[in-house]
Amino acid sequence: SAAPSAIAAEPAPSEVVGVDLGDRSYPIYIGAGLLDRGDLIARHVPGRRVLVVTNTTVAPLYLDRCVKALSAEGNLQVDSVVLPDGEEYKTIEVVQQIWDKAMECRLNRQSTFVALGGGVIGDMTGFAAASFLRGVHFLQIPTTVMAQVDSSVGGKTGVNHPLGKNMIGAFYQPTCVLIDTETLDTLPDRELASGVSEIVKYGLIRDAALFHWLEDNMEKLMARDQQALTYAIQRSCINKAEVVAQDELEGGVRATLNLGHTFGHAIETGQGYGVWLHGEAVSSGMVMAAHMSHKLGWVDASLPQRVRELLLRANLPVDAPPSMTPDQFRTIMAVDKKVQDGKLRLVLLKGKLGGCVVTGDFDGSKLTETLDEFCH
Ligand code: NAD
Ligand code: MG
């Protein structure tokens, strides 16, 4: 007679990082080939109905596999919606297409929205989930480095407003994040570099060991060595999870994750959404912040130099766009979300590598000098 059919123990993902938020805690699974692990995803799908949200670039690459993996899980009924691709489509009008699909499919409160794609898809899907029926379940399958190390973790969701990036949104945590590192094989080089910029950020604001590792391994990472990618992604998720667990709603320490972002948002907005990638703008922004920190006497001259050299090895920009003026920077920076009572606050480096502060208490002439030096 045939041997009893053993239920094969599924291989564990190579890494699991926890995001500790009390009863809203969730796991981040990291590993190669996890997209096929419908069982892992299904654990975090409480109802029967799933809506996978993706875009026209990611759909031909991964949508079938994702839907198959989920449909293979007993009684899940899986629908999907494919949105246009691009930062310029990160709008409330495009979020409406998600709600339209959910209404057509008659999804109920027990439904789950799955974001399959980069940060744009993740941010929009999360916002759509936060507000559909006043909140349905939501999980993230990020497929860019940017989304895997940053945007899929921590619950910031939303869309752009014509007058400012990410101005409309909600804090809404996913029920799990599933990172398949192999999806990065198809990512364009420029997008890979853009995400690496945020990895460098974690090194600068709180993880000197990661910064040293990057100085030793940048070429491996850029060559998409699977081990190097897994390490850098895991380390980044740990850093993000720790910060978010301490300060979910950005009342304090979470703002440090915005190193380079105030300068960077000015670049993104000034150039028009999508001209500079988010991580590219953050890259130049981090060099500007490091430079200003040195001008204030808060870090050694060697630090801005090391930051610049490391980012150059990732093929990232380290200067302001030639067309931008100091006035343009100032105007756009004045509407930054960190502005309090009319005072601009910046994330600046201070002390040893891995140390930073969020402060409005700095000599303003050093900001002026920095803008003048970076704008030609
Ligand atoms: P993106 O979502 O636009 O993706 C970049 C490009 O890569 C797109 O063309 C996309 O279709 C394509 N793509 C995605 N996965 C792919 C794959 N595996 N193979 C081939 N192509 C693929 O950009 P992004 O850099 O992932 O995210 C940027 C967005 O994320 C910005 O809107 C930014 O504001 C947001 N963001 C949010 C947070 C947060 O905390 N919520 C943090 C950082 C960034
Ligand atoms: Mg960012």
Automatic annotation (TrEMBL):
Its EC number is 4.2.3.4. GO terms for biological process: amino acid biosynthetic process; aromatic amino acid family biosynthetic process; chorismate biosynthetic process. One of its GO terms (molecular function) is metal ion binding. Residues 81-193 form the 3-dehydroquinate synthase N-terminal domain. It is an enzyme of class 4 (lyase). It holds the Pfam family DHQS_C. Keywords: Amino-acid biosynthesis, Aromatic amino acid biosynthesis, Cobalt, Cytoplasm, Lyase, Metal-binding, NAD, Nucleotide-binding, Zinc. It is found in: Cytoplasm; Plastid, Chloroplast. Its cofactor is Co(2+); NAD(+). It catalyses: 7-phospho-2-dehydro-3-deoxy-D-arabino-heptonate = 3-dehydroquinate + phosphate. It comes from the Eukaryota. Pathway: Metabolic intermediate biosynthesis; chorismate biosynthesis; chorismate from D-erythrose 4-phosphate and phosphoenolpyruvate: step 2/7. One of its GO terms (cellular component) is chloroplast. Residues 195-339 form the 3-dehydroquinate synthase C-terminal domain. Catalyzes the second step in the shikimate pathway. Belongs to the sugar phosphate cyclases superfamily. Dehydroquinate synthase family. This is 3-dehydroquinate synthase.
